[in-house]
Structure formats: C-alpha cells, structure tokens
Specification:
Layout lengths: L3 H21 L9 H18 L4 H4 L6 H8 L10 E5 L4 E8 L11 H5 L2 H8 L8 H14 L6 E8 L10 H9 L3 E5 L1 H7 L8 E7 L3 E4 L9 E7 H7 L4 H5 L31 H12 L4 H4 L3 E5 L1 E7 L4 E7 L2 E4 L1 H13 L3 H4 L5 E8 L6 H10 L6 H4 L4 H12 L2 E4 L15 E4 H11 L10 H4 L4 H5 L9 H16 L7 H13 L5 H14 L8 H5 L2 H14 L19
Parallel strand pairs: 2-3, 3-4, 8-12, 13-14
Antiparallel strand pairs: 1-2, 5-10, 6-7, 7-12, 8-11, 9-10
Helix pairs in contact: 1-2, 1-9, 6-7, 12-14, 19-23, 22-23, 23-24
C-alpha cells in the first residue's frame, strides 16, 4: 500500500521533469504555480514510462490537456477529459489518457464519473465526426478515425492515471459497461503502481535456499576455477520468499508455514539491472497466471526460467549430503523479471494461492557468481534476454560503453537515459539536457552519413549496426557532450525558425553541419529547406517522405559539392524564403 512518502517522492520526481521541460521549450514559468509544475511533470513522467518514449520533445505533442497547452502555448481548446493521446502505429494501439493530480495526499480513490467525461471524444470517434472538437484534440480524432476505418485491427486503451492510493475497479458495472460500449480496455494506475516505477536504488539483497541433491547442477568455466555457478530447480514459493521485501523471511530456508508468504511483496531492488524495466501490461503476464492456476505441476516445462546473478554464492552440504543450503548475497534478477512480477502479483490476488498453486509449481533458476568489475553480468543480461521479444535498444542498455557514456555525460550535466524514467545519477544536480540512448544512436548514425536512415532504421542501430556506430574507432566518448550540445543548439534554431521542425530534419542538419564545417546553422537550415522545395519526383511527397529517400540524400550530396566552393557561408543565397527569428 502506497503511503505519504511515496506521494512526496513523486512530487520531487515531477518537479525534476518540469525542470527538464524548461530546458526544451521557451515559456513564461512565472505564470505557473508550483502545483501546476508538479502536475505538468506528472504528465511527462507517466507518459514516458507507459509509452516508453524517452525524449521530452516527443512527449509534448502527445499532451492534449487544456491547462497544459494554455499555459505553455496559449492554446485554449477543450480537452473533453482526454489529457493525452499516443498512437502506436507499430503495435496498432491507440492509448488515451485521463490524468488527475491531487494537491494533497489522502487515501481516497479514483472516481468513475471522472472517467466518463471522455464520452464526448469517444462518441465523436464512434460517429466518425470530429466537428465538435477543436485544436490538437480534433487532429488526433481525425487520425484515430482513419486508423479505425482502415483494414488494420487496432486496440483502444484508456489509462486512468492519478496520484491517489485507491484505483478504479474495471469490473464495476458502470465502468465495465462504459468499456464495452466503446470497445476499449481500461487501465487504472494509482500511487502504488507509480511507486514501483520511480527510480530504484539497489540494496544488497541476500537470501538462503535449500534444495535436494538431485535438484542442483554445478558449473565452472574450467577445471581449476574456484568460482562456481549453479542451475537449480526451485519451488515458486521459495522464489517468492527469496525475492520478497522481508529480510527475515529471505533467510528462512526451512519455512514451514507458507501462509506467511501470502501477503509479501517483491523487493524491487532485485530488478534494478533487469533490462526490460517496468512493463505496464503484457499478455505474457496473463499467460503465466493462467498456467499457474491450470497446470501448476507443469509450470517448469512452460516457463523459460529465471537468471539470477550474485556477488557471493556459498553452498553447504547438509543432511548426510542429501541436501544443499545455498547462501546468496547481492542478488539481481537479470532475466525473468516479468515472470517474477507475475508470480508475486498472482500470490497477492488470493491468500490461498501460495499453498494451493505456488508450492506445487517449480521453475529453473540459473545462479551465476559475478564480480562487480566483471562485464559478464551485462553480457548475461543481454544474451539471455535476446531470446525474448525485447527491443534491441533495451538489450544494449547494460553494455559497458553505454554505462560509461551515462557516467561521462553526467559529469557534463547531461542525463543519458538508458531506461524509461531516468532523471540523472545525482538527484541534486541541475542538468542542462536529457537525451535517450536511442536518440543519441540516431544522431551518431546521421553523423556517419546516414540521416535518411536514422528514423526508419532505429532497431538496426542497436542491432546489426551497433558496433559500427558505438564502437567505431573514430568516435570518442569525449566528443559525446559536444555532439549533444550541438544537437540541442540546432533544435532550438529550427524551433525558432519559420519552418516546421522534425527529428528527420535535425538529423540532416547535424550531417550537413559536419560536412559544411564553416557554415552557420541558419545557413544550413535554409539550404536543407530550399533543397526540399526544389526536389521533385513523379509522386507528390511530403517533406517527411522525401527525407527518408536515398535519392533525396544523393541529390543533396550533389548539391553539397557546389556548396564546398562557396567562400562565405553566411551570405545566404536562397530565393524561396529568408530565415527569420520569431
């Protein structure tokens, strides 16, 4: 159960997000109260974690809330209870958000009627008529209508998000009828859930477990190695116990009264290094619960198992060498985090589950002894998770070069976000920028001469092309802060120009800035825009479509050959338009 300290920690987190927003866009902060700053930061924090979008600049367009757009952009259109919208074209999911940020902590809960105010927007979608909507909300409505009228099968979600303790129960009659009428799934999210996704600082978690002789296998890298790792078959009630938040229970390897475990919760410190991070909803979670209830004795065969690393593993034979007591110190789950969460969630649903189901189910657990200075733990996390559906960028988040980048950029007051929710290593530091690992990869790929591929080959950047980008001998970590500062300088210039900005354009300007060494940013922006205007094909293409075409990139490169011969890049010779500061 969440408490007032969780509420206070969330307030601190939200203010950090607002401070990052101030670095991104220009607006009058004097007109915004401290509570509104927390509320705005709350929107950004929750959207980043639920949508897994790590750039502040990418989160801003998602927010349709009237107060947010009024205070920041003087746009005063009604939001009809829909505070943010995210259309995930890759997964064919449309997510609507209804936010409530309470000014004071109390144990009250979310209200059904506050969710129902989204009806006007949903009715417009149902009737294929957005004429009653305005501004950003209308634009999103039109896009959603087109999505739902296409041949693709889209899933509609409504997230009800607040900083309250109690959340809505989707099975309530009114809420259930509302969901069925609008063909959507409702996901209530409250303070208990939010406390899980706030930054976790790893504690030294220790535990003890006892296994039968025939339930353990020993592994060592070579015959003379004294460091041993183990593979064990473990009952789920024991897995529940050694990963719970009760220090005493974790050491009670001979626990007989299993009912004591019926209300224990997971100690999130054991998941600190898990690359998957916090997954909001997953179909695999439900599959795990179904198999536990239907076939507990066969769970061992249905599940891939758990990979656990530890700083110290000591094994002692007991009971005439028929059993082994295993002492674990500094444990981390690096693979199987979703399985572990689902087991804990299943346990808390009913006090009888730990005896009736979990005690009858077993799971394969790999125990690896890892030294702090050894990079092996990162490789274990990467390779064991690569068998599952995890994005390549997440698999690479524990690579040593990524951790080094995070540490180096922290010294330069830049947040290098390797996971959702990252707000810097030092809570007291005033950071100047935040950039995701994914965006930095796109920037480096553009600088290598591939701006046309940086947007639509994001997965390849952290897969087949990863070594060529991040391990290139021409890339020095000491250049990373200069590259990032240049990126934000270009972004600021484009945002304040007469042209519409986009990520693709920024990647091109970065590339051009490297080629045209002495040119000003203003000159390069104009050069790119003029080239977009004069570039013609048989088809009528938007600028976004032009920018991802190889032949446009080739056309631009041919034009650059002439630009190299200009003596003064500040003398802009573009007839179509003139660069202006707004």
């Amino acid at each position: 159960m969440a408490n007032i300290n969780d509420y206070k920690l969330l307030n601190v987190k939200c203010l950090k997000y607002f401070a990052l927003l101030e670095k991104e866009i220009d607006f009058n902060t004097e007109l915004i109260s401290t509570m509104d700053k927390k509320r705005i930061g709350f929107y950004l924090f929750m959207l980043e974690n639920i949508c897994d979008i790590r750039e502040i600049s990418d989160l801003i367009p998602l927010i349709t809330d009237k107060e947010f757009n009024s205070k920041l952009f003087s746009s005063n259109f009604e939001d009809n209870g829909v505070d943010a919208i995210y259309i995930n074209k890759e997964n064919l999911e449309i997510s609507l958000f209804n936010f409530k940020f309470r000014e004071k902590f109390n144990k009250s809960g979310q209200k059904v009627n506050e969710t129902m105010i989204t009806s006007k927007f949903l009715n417009a979608i149902d009737l294929n008529n957005s004429s009653g909507l305005n501004g950003k909300l209308k634009c999103y409505a039109d896009e959603i209508i087109n999505c739902l009228n296409s041949d693709d099968i889209w899933k509609l979600k409504l997230y009800v998000v607040s900083n309250e303790v109690e959340v809505l129960k989707p099975q309530e009659t009114d809420l259930n009828n509302f969901a069925k009428k609008n063909d959507l799934t409702i996901y209530p999210i409250g303070l208990s859930y939010i406390s899980d996704i706030m930054s976790i600082k790893p504690d030294k978690i220790g535990a003890q477990v006892i296994v039968d002789k025939d339930s353990i296998l020993t592994y060592s890298e070579n015959e003379i190695s004294t460091s041993k790792s183990y593979v064990i078959k473990l009952p789920l009630n024991d897995l529940l116990r050694i990963t719970c938040n009760d220090d005493d229970l974790r050491s009670q390897y001979n626990l007989e009264n299993l009912k004591i475990l019926s209300n224990v919760e997971i100690d999130l410190s054991v998941l600190f290094d898990n690359v998957r991070g916090f997954v909001t909803k997953s179909k695999y979670n439900n599959n795990i619960e179904d198999s536990l209830k239907s076939y507990p004795e066969k769970f061992f065969m249905f599940n891939n198992g758990i990979t656990l690393i530890a700083k110290d593993i000591r094994v002692k034979q007991v009971n005439g060498n028929k059993k082994f007591i295993i002492n674990l110190e500094g444990i981390q789950i690096v693979n199987g985090g979703q399985t572990l969460r689902s087991i804990h969630k299943f346990n808390l649903k009913d006090a009888s589950h730990v005896v009736d189901y979990l005690s009858k189910a077993e799971v394969l657990v790999r125990l690896f002894l890892i030294d702090d200075e050894d990079d092996t733990k990162n490789k274990i996390a990467e390779f064991t998770n690569s068998q599952n559906s995890i994005y390549p960028v997440d698999l690479k988040s524990l690579r040593p070069e990524q951790i080094q980048l995070e540490q180096y950029l922290d010294e330069k007051n830049i947040i290098y976000s390797r996971k959702s929710g990252d707000t810097g290593i030092d809570d007291n530091k005033n950071y100047i920028h935040k950039i995701s690992m994914e965006r930095f990869g796109q920037i480096l790929f553009s600088l290598k001469g591939n701006p046309e591929k940086a947007s639509n080959q994001k997965k390849q950047i952290f897969d087949k092309k990863y070594n060529d980008i991040f391990l290139d001998e021409n890339f020095s970590i000491e250049d990373s802060d200069k590259i990032i500062n240049k990126y934000f300088e270009i972004k600021n210039s484009y945002d304040n120009s007469i042209y519409g900005s986009s990520d693709q354009k920024l990647f091109y300007v970065l590339y051009l800035d490297k080629v045209l060494v002495d040119a000003s940013i203003e000159y390069i922006i104009n050069l790119l825009e003029s080239t977009l205007s004069e570039y013609e094909t048989e088809l009528t293409l938007s600028d976004a479509r032009k920018l991802i075409r190889t032949d446009f990139k080739n056309y631009l490169d041919l034009k650059l050959n002439g630009e190299h011969n200009k003596k003064n890049f500040d003398e802009v010779d573009i007839k179509q338009t003139q660069y202006l500061q707004l």
